[in-house]
Amino acid sequence: DKTVYLKDYRPTDFIIETVDLIFELGAEMTTVGSEIRLSRRPGSPADAPLTLDGDSLELAGLALDGKPLAPERYEAAADGLTVHGLPESGSFTLTVKTRINPSANTQLLGLYRTSGLFSTQCEAEGFRRITYFYDRPDVLAVYTVTIIADKESCPLLLSNGNLIEERNLEDGRHMAKWHDPFPKPSYLFALVAGDLAMIEDQFTTMSGRAVTLRIYVEHGKADRADYAMDSLKRAMRWDEERFGREYDLDIFMIVAVSDFNMGAMENKGLNIFNDRLILADPETATDDDYLRIEAVVAHEYFHNWTGNRITCRDWFQLSLKEGLTVYREHEFTADQRTRPVVRVDEVKFLRANQFPEDGGPLAHPVRPTQYLEIDNFYTTTVYEKGSEVSRMIATLLGTDNFRRGLDLFFERHDGGAVTIEDYLKCFEDATGRDLSHFALWYHQAGTPVISVQSAYDEAASTLSLTLQQKTPPTPGQKEKKPLHIPLRVGLIGPNGDGMEPSAVSGGERTEDVLHLTEAEQTFVFKGIGARPAISVNRDFSAPVKVNFEQSRDDRMAIARFETDLVARWDAINGLALQALVEATAAVRAGTPISVDPALAEALIETAGDETLEPAFRALALTLPSELDIGRELGRDIDPDAIHAARRTVFGSLAREGAERFRQLVDALSGDTEFSPNADSAGRRALRNTALAYLASATDEPGAARAAYDAATNMTDMIAALRILAHQFPDAEETAAVLDDFRHRFAGEPLVLDKWFGAQATIPGEEALERVKRLMQDEAFDALNPNRVRALVGAFASSNPTGFNRPDGAGYRFFADFILDADKRNPTLTARLMTVMRSFEALEVGRQAKARTELERIAGHETLSRNLRDIIDRMLK
Ligand code: HT7
Ligand code: ZN
User: Which residues form the Peptidase M1 membrane alanine aminopeptidase domain (predicted)?
Assistant: First the structure.
């Protein structure tokens, strides 16, 4: 059993001070020389051997202080190196030589070569695929890296830190030497070699130091890197202003690569990005792409302090860097754009991704206590719930105190590899507040459900609010304790104004935050002159589900008058969700669907409310998706019934509001100059949302076809294409537009991903054959993670009717794909597999068919550890 347990943590027996690496790069054979300066850790046993990690390595030489080691002094295997009889005291040098094949590395972990480019991905355990090392985050060393390669094919040789030497060698090769003065763990090591274009800029830090900024991209794409560069500079300034964090090296580089397992990687001074998160211009990128680029560029940059300068003691502490960095990223985005709109997107993401994870077989605490494969713990729980936990700390302490705690964290732990306890202690020490109860958020999995009951006493002018919290059991954690939950609650009076109580008893209240600390608590609000509508979890102050049987009138009052726009959106969305759930029940019962006219009125009124930002109006107008409806139902899900219900409700709203939608489309279609800013993006979002309704109301493809032809940017173009593909899949116009798009963007893989995605998600049982056909398109590449996610991933995760065909053919296809792809790239397949984690919520027929396929996968003996871990937990 290879399970790793938190309780088993212990420091290494040896300390690594410096590492000198020499790479002689060859496409099929790269040799890696590693000179490690080591000393025995004081207090560790004098006879303890040195045990270094390895993965798929071949040892080509081993020496101690320059002398080759006799074979009886060490054991070398593909997965590790053990050296005996090392000095009891003083430093010594171990020289290790390994040989690797970067071209054969389809896992994209370690050093790999794709499209002529050498690049690395070392987090979490990729460095051990390069050389034998203590490949763990608590071993920090100073790295010097020499890269030798053919000058013509690899004019560019990059690694972390500062360039200290560069020269030509014989036989057409050249070398570059990089030195990173900041001690770092191996997961932050990076190397890139190849031939790329570059844009350069300058940033002057708050203390006046000049930093060179460079972004490297494929030749011919340099003009698409400007927005990433602009985002980087804004992020650097923001981190100085908001958190006092200044950049520390003289150069900061980003390299965009086209084969990458995740979004991006924060390697010290040399971030490596999936190119879809760097490249953007109006003709090829959507507003969502721009938003993601800004967010991820900032996220990776913010890691320089939260992750790199202060890192994790072990991988159980992953949320220490990821949760906190997501929180910093969210705050940055909120400051760059419109805060409530950004927050609504976060809430939608959390509910769509983290809540199902927390409520399913893969649930785990923000700080797990065991893992089989750490790659599988880069989850929305560690990232997004982790971020929510930091947000709650900020809510509990207030913004200034949060900053004080974080300042102390940077001061106390700079250069360290620390734990979540160390993090929390800084907030306690800086503010005097006891966070021991709050800390449970890190250790207890599952989404708490808060049940609310209210009683208004007119004679006493009091409102009693009884809040009960319950967290459902999760794997390995049956019993749950009450958490400390900061819940923002607002009261809306009969005239729509906010009501402020004269006093509140029953528990702590700070501003509008109720501190729920017990399983059940009754808060009594005094001085409430009339029965209010109660708005619970404003701004989504806590990542919880709220069960509150409110009258429709109260929900309408919140939808109309709440000043907190997040809660206002939530009320509108909740009303729509309820209508869709009822419509689904009607479809299954064979009874007619009736759409509440008050809901239609509220939506149409909001859509036209000029006092609200277009982006917010677009959010309000967007009906919950079929997946949202399924999640709301939670069990016995019939995707076909949901689809029919949503289509009917959508059509009915479309007809009801046709006039308004036409007005919006006309009024918002005039923008000619493209700007990626939040205001322009919001206008496009509202216009394209209205266009989708309009297309449904008229039930003909003409308006969308005209919008496609008139589009001057990718946002409008792909929106029109999606409307055509999803609402009129068989129309001539749709075929023509799909064909036009395919040819127009023939040489643009990232743009064709949108084309793959739009078609993979066309509802109905023909989707499977369509996806199979698209896999034969020459633009599809089963080795490239972006292509796989765009086509197979989108089909499995976002096409409920197509993927969940009642005959189980969708599951069969997916299982075959997974089994095949697992041989090449386990990180990718394990992640892809998680889209089926909620299969037990399906109706029994589909559930059985899904289980058969999952069991078929589980029955294979040669699964990767990544996939084995996921599939076994899903079937437990
Ligand atoms: N810290 C980075 C995580 C990451 C990663 C993890 C496993 C396998 C491949 C990976 N690529 C990047 C990205 C981040 O969260 O900032
Ligand atoms: Zn991160």
Answer: 227-438
Task: Give distance in angstroms: CA of 794 to centre of ligand 1.
Answer: 21
Say if ligand 1 is within 6 A of residue 259 CB. no
Identify whether 708 is part of a domain.
no
Cα dihedral angle (611, 616, 618, 619), rounded to 10 degrees? -150
**Do both 433 and 485 map to the same domain?**
no
Domain that holds residue 92: 4-302
- Number of structural domains (the chain) is 3
pLDDT in tens, 241-288: 999 999 999 999 999 999 999 999 999 999 999 999 999 999 999 999
List the residue whose alpha carbon is closest to atom 15 of ligand 1.
322
Nearest to 546 by CA among 636, 468, 440: 468
Residue 314 Cα to ligand 2 middle (Å)? 15
- Give ipTM to 2 decimals: 0.98
Quick check: CB of 125 below 6 Å from ligand 1?
Answer: no
In a domain, 819, yes or no: no
d(CA 829, CA 822): 6
Residues 289 and 345 in one domain: no
Q: Per-residue pLDDT tens for 594-629?
A: 999 999 999 999 999 999 999 999 999 999 999 999
Counting ligand 1 atoms within 8 A of each CB, the residue from 121, 257, 296, 378 with the most, and so the one to mutate, is: 378
Query: Which pLDDT does position 699 carry in this prediction?
Result: 98
- Alpha carbon of 409 to ligand 1 centroid (Å): 23
Reported as half-sphere exposure (CB side, CA atoms, 13 A), residue 430 has a value of 24
Q: Do 64 and 86 meet the contact criterion of CB atoms below 8 Å apart? A: yes
As residues whose CB is below 5 A from the ion ligand 2, the structure lists 322, 325
pLDDT digits (tens, 9 = 90+) for 78-117: 999 999 999 999 999 999 999 999 999 999 999 999 999 9
300 has catalytic annotation: yes
Phi/psi for 34 (5° steps) reads -130, 120
Question: At which of 302, 325, 344 does a domain end?
Answer: 302
Residue 121 near ligand 1, beta carbon < 6 Å: yes
pLDDT digits (tens, 9 = 90+) for 756-787: 999 999 999 999 999 999 999 999 999 999 99
Question: For residue 438, what is the domain's CATH number?
Answer: 1.10.390.10
Asked if residue 85 is part of any domain, the answer here is: yes
